[in-house]
Design brief:
211 residues, alpha/beta, DHBP synthase
């Protein structure tokens, strides 16, 4: 049976964060608010939980899951190295609506789907998400919806789509317009804009000095 916690109430928020942390550590799924849309998340290092996440979304491993982090320093342990361009973008837009694709550290034991040795990382600008991430560590997170249906902009929309496949729903209120994050690929010789979302291509180019 799923539980929904109203994070506008301080006591319910504290209870919800504790329940969500327990669920993540027990290989179960949670829904959390972010600064873009609601996300469905699991322990990034728990391959079984990540498979459950993909199953809940009716999605295959050909569409790998990104990873949310609670701090800049977390990234250093997840990737082969943080190039200057990545550091500049993190300083400009994190926490916020920019996702970075980097080569992941080969020593990491995780299975996020068919990633070809890369990982997509983001630090969200939402207090509930950040508090949970700082408690449990990196989480594999995808939009809280069944594939082919609109991303959830409220906790109730996530409940309606995902139901009891998720143990804990953290209700942080409506997210506003469901605009996805911008994705920049830094695995090649030159940065590549894979998706323009909340951060504009011009803003990215200005930071990278490519305008």
């Amino acid at each position: 049976m799923s539980a929904v916690y109203d994070c506008s109430d301080p006591d319910a928020r504290a209870d919800g964060l504790a329940a969500a942390a327990g669920a993540v550590r027990s290989s179960r799924l949670v829904v959390l608010p972010t600064d873009t849309v609601y996300g469905i998340g699991a322990d990034a290092f728990d391959s079984g939980a990540v498979r459950s996440l993909l199953h809940a979304k009716n999605r295959g491993p050909d569409m790998p899951v990104g990873v949310l982090v609670g701090s800049w320093s977390t990234v250093d342990g997840l990737v082969l190295g943080v190039p200057p361009q990545a550091r500049a973008l993190m300083e400009a837009f994190w926490p916020g609506d920019l996702s970075l694709v980097l080569p992941h550290a080969p020593s990491l034991q995780w299975d996020l789907g068919t990633t070809r040795g890369t990982v997509m990382l983001r630090m969200p600008l939402h207090p509930v998400a950040l508090e949970l991430l700082r408690e449990v560590g990196p989480m594999a997170v995808s939009s809280a919806n069944v594939s082919g249906r609109p991303p959830a902009a409220t906790a109730q929309e996530a409940v309606d789509q995902l139901g009891d496949s998720v143990s804990v729903y953290l209700d942080g209120g409506p997210t506003g317009d469901p605009v996805p994050s911008t994705i920049v690929d830094l695995t090649g010789d030159e940065p590549a804009l894979l998706r323009e979302g909340a951060v504009s291509a011009d803003e990215v180019a200005e930071v990278l000095g490519t305008r």
